[in-house]
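Internal tracking record. Fields below are filled automatically when a chain is submitted to the structure queue. Please do not edit lines marked as system-generated. If the sequence contains nonstandard residues, flag them in the REMARKS field before resubmitting.
Queue: standard
Priority: normal
Entity type: single polypeptide chain
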Amino acid sequence: MAMTQKHPHEILRKKAQELSVSLYEAEFAKLMDEADPLRHLRDEFTFPRNKTLPKVDLNLVEADEECLYLCANSLGLMPRGLRPLLNKTLDDWCNLGVHGHIEASIPWATCDESVTEDSAKLVGAHKDEVAIMNGLTVNLHLFMISFYRPTPLRHKILMEQHSFPSDQYAAESQIKLHGYDPATSMIILEPKKGEEVLHTSDILSTIEKHGESIALIFLPGVHYYTGQLLDIETITREGQKQGCYVGWDLAHAVGNVELFLHDWNVDFAAWCTYKYLNTGAGGIAGAFLHDRYKSNNLPKLTGWWGHEAKTRFLMENEFKPADGIGAYRVSNPSIMLCTGLRASLDVFNMTSMHELRAKSRLLTGYMELLLQYHLSRSANKEVYVNIITPSDPEQRGCHLSLEFSIPVNNVFQELLKRGIVVDKREPSVLRVAATPLYNSFEDVYKFIDLLHAAIKCAAEL
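SYSTEM-GENERATED OUTPUT FOLLOWS
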């Protein structure tokens, strides 16, 4: 994990003192945005207008105003650079036909390779440790074929209680594929009674206790429901000490927090790209395999794109695997999907994950402070908000998960009416993400202001 820094609350309070303004007034947000060195990145994205969104009450908002978009944890906004890139790709198809595989502006035959190096930067990996391919769950299955190899003594997968459903389905199906029963071949981590998130110490204790029976530790980098960022480095190290393989679902971590997969010695990881990486719904996924597996004989499912590039088109029907992660590329990639990733990476290349993370800590800390000041149980006894995401900035990314003392669906519907885009997750949470690429301090201030009105109306339903 990154070195401990000052808590964002401390930094924000000091900023307010230096600016001689109240932390809880609109002027503070305005001045913070004016001083934000990343504020220009907002112009690289397109925001829906209130009038184009469903369920917006145009009596409550201006129709032509941009909506308040705080939902990168579910789907990122469209980069402005995508449309011209996509149009160029379509022109290449129109004008070149099959020659586009080699002669297109982004040659289709190697379009995945054109986005690999920049993707590797985002996850702290070497270029040859990353492949852009398939969808997230497909990549997880491909990795589990290699890294879940159960034996009578070591056949269990360690997961957590509320893993994303697709992750659990994948793990359960792999267990059954090998003739085992998920009821006895899964160890499920649970928070302490009355708590929402996991303690690293409890995870490590479970690994130490059951390590000899665990074949694979498979956890989320950032938890989709609670927003908790797990200690990837420590858990990986301690799991491997017990002889376990350790893999990570980074769907909510990539583009959100700093990652150092190579240095952390992670065995494998996979991620989608349509959340914080802004590639559009169903965007192509990413995969990481540490380079110590560059030459491995692990079992794997193979296809022709995993064949070594220099002899791939000789069509000899004798599989010669590419090195490392390259051997896991089953099918040729989609130029359309890679174009979406290219447009987003062009924006990420205007900054760094270190700079984005620094802004993110402040944005999320600012939202937390405003929620605590205006809507905590102590501030508002009748109707209040509970933040289940850890307050420790080292244990979270940019999204906060909120529970309410009134029905969450009522609050959600009132926010929709006001052009506020967040998302609801069953059973009781609204997820709110102020992403540093395109959200501002004024966005956060406006959200809290409108949340007041939404809660007041929701409480009357």
